[in-house]
Amino acid sequence: MTPRHKKPSAPAEGSSASSSMEEPYIEAWGHKFHHSGRIFVPFDEKEQERMELHHRLFRHCLNGALTATRIPLSVQNILDLGSGTGLWPLEMAARYPQANILGIDISRIQKTNVSPNVRFTIDNVENPWPTPANSIDFVHARGLAGGITDWPALFKQAYEKLKPGGLLEWTEMAIQIFDFDNNLGDIELCPKFLNLWRDLSKRNNIDFTPSPNGPLWLVEAGFENIAQRTEILPIGDWAQDEKLRTRQNLMNRVSAEHFENHCALLFTKCGWTREQFDAVAPTFFSEIQAESKKPYTMVVFTTARKPRLEED
After folding, report:
1. φ/ψ (deg, to 5) at 151
2. What is the CATH number of domain 4-305?
3. Sign (positive/negative) of CA torsion 263, 261, 215, 155?
4. How distant, in Å, are the alpha carbons of 126, 220, 267, 299 from that of 270?
5. First to last CA, the chain
6. Would you say residue 20 has pLDDT above 50?
């Protein structure tokens, strides 16, 4: 079973941007993927809904803030990697009206009504960025897992582009599910399905849970002051705390409505049919929906700084 290459269709009126549908695309299980076949996250409307849910979820984890990093109001140049629909750079533009914000994404799905201090460029973030060395104050990357094949090279480029003392923030959700009542963080739920997912990802040189390796890659690139902040994201109907219940409601929508988004191309390229996938997927949901379980996953906010120049 292989994904189908299709010609573009006209974008719907009122859609985000002048649409990556102007390019050919790959279709798998009704989802549209970048025509290169190397990006395992789709760009269609269903995926754009997921991106916006994640944006709300991450802001909630940060108590309404747009970053885990404390950014000075005098910041001048901000680079956003994997902008998606462009929500984050547009909200940053309102928060930092004096800053120039450049967003890079491989698909043209950004909103067309943008602030004058925001611009987008369409490219793979693993390619050289259109910015000089030592020119960026803050590099922001979020939700890149599924599209990156060389994480160390990505962080080396970030180091090169940042000014001395410049800041980096990288956010990823873990493709892991644990039981809150069972050795917190030690015993994984759904191991059979998730191990299958990891095996298929490895065959395609993709890591959907790269955060544990992040500190090492950042040290190798030359960064300092590296820190990781982990937030719990409940799934199901067990959270009692109001803050956790809000996260839980958002996560339930993500897991129920958008589960197959990240599976379609990966499983298809590895020879799976939709029918074969549908035969194993229910075991995943039955385990996380069991009344005796309190499932959760995590989001990891990784922050770092390029060293400042030594004073004479």
Report:
1. -65, -45
2. 3.40.50.150
3. positive
4. 23, 33, 5, 27
5. 63
6. no
Residue 32: both structure tokens together: 């549209």
- Token pair for residue 61? 């984890």
Non-local CB neighbours of 182 within 8 Å, separated by 6+ positions: none
**Nearest Cα residue to 191 out of 263, 114, 283:** 283
Q: Where are the alpha helices (DSSP H) in the chain?
A: 45-61, 87-95, 151-161, 191-203, 214-221, 242-258, 264-269, 274-288
Q: Who's near 4: CB < 8 A, 6+ residues apart?
A: 26, 27, 28
Contacts of 291 (CB under 8 A, 6+ apart): none
pTM, two decimal places: 0.90
CA atoms within 13 A on the CB side of 130: 11
SS (H, E, C) 79-146: EEECCCCCHHHHHHHHHCCCCEEEEEECCCCCCCCCCCCEEEEECCCCCCCCCCCCCEEEEEEECCCC
d(CA 208, CA 262): 9
Give me the residue label for tokens 């090169």: 160
Q: Are strands 31-34 and 25-28 parallel, antiparallel or unpaired?
A: antiparallel
Alpha-carbon span 27 to 42, nearest angstrom: 9
User: Residue with structure tokens 């629909």?
Assistant: 85
Both tokens of 248, joined, read: 């839980």
Segment 135-145, tens digit of pLDDT: 999 999 999 99
How is residue 91 written in tokens? 């909200």
Q: Which residue reads 């644990």 in tokens?
A: 178
DSSP 188: B
| Residues 162-218: tens digit of each pLDDT | 999 999 999 999 988 999 887 555 678 888 899 999 999 999 999 999 999 999 999
Its sign, for the CA torsion 218, 219, 221, 226, is positive
